Amino acid sequence: MKMYILVKREVPDKMVPVITAHASLACFRKFENTANMQTWINGIFKKVVCVVSETEFANAKKEADHIVLTESALNNQEVCIAFSPREEYPKMFKFFKMWVPNNNE
User: Fold this and answer.
1) pTM of the full structure
2) Does residue 9 contact residue 52 with C-beta atoms inside 8 Å?
3) What is the C-alpha to C-alpha distance for residues 18 and 62, in angstroms, rounded to an integer?
4) pLDDT level of residue 102 (50, 70, 90 thresholds)
5) What is the DSSP-derived secondary structure letter of residue 24?
6) What is the pLDDT of residues 8-35, one digit of tens each?
7) pLDDT band at 103, cuts 50/70/90?
8) Which one-letter DSSP state was computed for residue 71?
9) Which of helix, strand or coil describes residue 97?
10) Tag placement on the chain: N or C end, fewer CB within 10 Å?
11) How far, in Å, CA of 13 to CA of 86, rounded?
């Protein structure tokens, strides 16, 4: 069981750790009373952070049980989506690229 956190490609790398920390907490708070969240939080709570394009972000927003976060430092743009933990995700999630920091910033 894992929580996926999708971050838009345009978000500066230096902001991603804080944004994803906020995302996992916001997702927990939104879904804390669900069976899946309780199973996840009381077990090994895996998180997967991926970087996505605008199109991938828009498509992912169509999926259930998520929370979208904005960033005030980026003009309140939507920057990330966190999905309530589950065993299975739609096929498109398998093709998202893992986020890796660019050490040039």
Assistant:
1) 0.94
2) yes
3) 25
4) confident
5) H
6) 999 999 999 999 999 999 999 999 999 9
7) low
8) E
9) strand
10) C
11) 27
Residue in the block written with tokens 């890796």: 100
- Return the closest-CA partner of residue 62 out of 34, 38, 92: 92
Q: For the residues of 27-68, what is the DSSP string, one character each?
A: HHHHHTTSHHHHHHHTS--EEEEEEE-HHHHHHHTTSSSEEE
Residue 101 tokens read as: 């920091």
All domains of the chain in start order, with CATH: 2-98 (3.40.1490.10)
* HSE-CB for 44 with a 13 A CA cutoff: 4
Which of 58-94 are b and which e, b meaning 16 or more Cβ less than 10 Å from the residue's Cβ?
eebeeeeebbebebeeeeeeebbbbbbbbeeeeeebe
Give first-to-last CA distance, the chain, whole Å.
Answer: 33
Question: What does the buried/exposed string (b/e) look like for 7-26 if buried means 16 or more CB atoms within 10 Å of the residue's CB?
Answer: bbeebeeebbeebbebbbee
